[in-house]
């Protein structure tokens, strides 16, 4: 086999493979482009901003279909204060909109990033599961003060990916019309 034939064959293979590689890269780009961005404001919780940002980071590194960041036109706001028995909580529609209340007393007692990531989970559509182990982010304070896991587990990640697959798909409601 001549060098010329070998070179021509290599170029031919490269020409055939390049569209596949380009197609694969394009699919990754379009998948990433399909991610919904939820804009957040931390201006109401300046004392805890670093923990909120870290909690958002836990979600951003765990899921692809939704990303959270500080930007203009925030639909999700964080505020700090003393909320008594209610403690830290989220008032949200579960679609990336609402207000997350960060409680001073809970932040002094529990893992700060876990609290912010947990409450953000509500804003993304997850419910509490207080009976769950520390490995479940949505077990919240039920896992105790020694729990420092601030990352969603596989089931929580899958739920968010499913819910946010096309932006956020509202829960299906069925009715029978007569």
From TrEMBL:
Single GO term (MF): zinc ion binding
Catalytic reaction annotation: Hydrolyzes proteins with a preference for Tyr or Phe in the P1' position. Has no action on amino-acid p-nitroanilides
Binding site for Zn(2+): 118, 122, 128
One Pfam family this sequence matches: Peptidase_M7
Disulfide bridge positions per record: 134-147
The EC number(s) this enzyme carries: 3.4.24.77
One example of a Gene Ontology biological process annotation: proteolysis
Class in the EC hierarchy, top level: hydrolase
UniProt keyword list: Calcium, Hydrolase, Metal-binding, Metalloprotease, Protease, Signal, Zinc
Cofactor: Zn(2+); Ca(2+)
Superkingdom of source: Bacteria
Cofactor annotation comment: Binds 1 zinc ion per subunit.
Signal peptide bounds: 1-27
Any one of the GO CC terms: extracellular region
Residues that coordinate or bind Ca(2+): 111
UniProt-annotated catalytic positions: 119
Record family assignment: Belongs to the peptidase M7 family.
Name of this chain's protein: Extracellular small neutral protease
């Amino acid at each position: 086999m001549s060098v010329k034939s070998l070179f021509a064959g290599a170029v031919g293979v490269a020409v055939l493979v390049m569209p596949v590689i380009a197609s694969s890269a394009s699919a990754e780009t379009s998948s990433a482009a399909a991610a919904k961005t939820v804009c957040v404001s931390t201006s109401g919780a300046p004392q805890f901003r670093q923990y909120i940002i870290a909690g958002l980071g836990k979600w951003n590194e765990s899921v692809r279909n939704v990303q959270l960041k500080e930007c203009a036109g925030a639909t999700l706001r964080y505020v700090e204060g003393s909320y008594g028995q209610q403690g830290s909580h989220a008032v949200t529609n579960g679609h990336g909109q609402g207000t997350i209340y960060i409680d001073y007393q809970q932040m002094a007692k529990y893992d700060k990033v876990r609290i912010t990531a947990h409450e953000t989970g509500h804003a993304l559509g997850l419910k509490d599961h207080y009976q769950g182990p520390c490995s479940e982010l949505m077990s919240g304070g039920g896992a105790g003060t020694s729990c420092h896991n601030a990352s969603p587990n596989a089931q929580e990640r899958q739920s968010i990916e499913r819910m946010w697959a096309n932006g956020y798909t509202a829960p299906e409601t069925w009715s029978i019309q007569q």
